[in-house]
Amino acid sequence: MEETQEQKYLWWHEGIIYQIYPRSFQDSDNDGVGDLKGIISRLDYLKWMGITAVWISPIYPSPMADFGYDIADYRGIHPLFGTMEDFDELLNEVHQRGMKLILDLVPNHTSNQHPWFLESRSSKDNPKRDWYIWEDPKEDGSEPNNWLSVFGGSGWEWDEQTQQYYYHAFLVEQPDLNWRNPEVQQAMFDVMRFWLDKGVDGFRVDVMWHMIKDKHLRDNPPNPDYQEHMATYEKLVPAYSTDQPEIHEIVAKMRAVMDEYEERMMIGEIYLPVHRLVTYYGTDNNGAHLPFNFMLVNQDWNASTLSLHINEYEGALPPGGWPNWVIGNHDQPRITSRVGYSQAKVAAMLLLTLRGTPTMYYGDEIGMRDVPIPLDEVQDPQGLNMPDKDLSRDPARTPMQWDGSENAGFSEAKPWLRLPDNFRRVNVDVQREDPYSMLSFYRRLIQLRQQEPALHVGYYVPAPTKGTIISFQRIHKEQKFLVLLNLSHRPSLFRPEHASYAGKIVLATDPEREGRQVEKNISLSGDEGIIVRLN
Ligand code: GLC
Ligand code: MG
Question: What is the CATH number of domain 459-534?
Answer without folding.
Answer: 2.60.40.1180
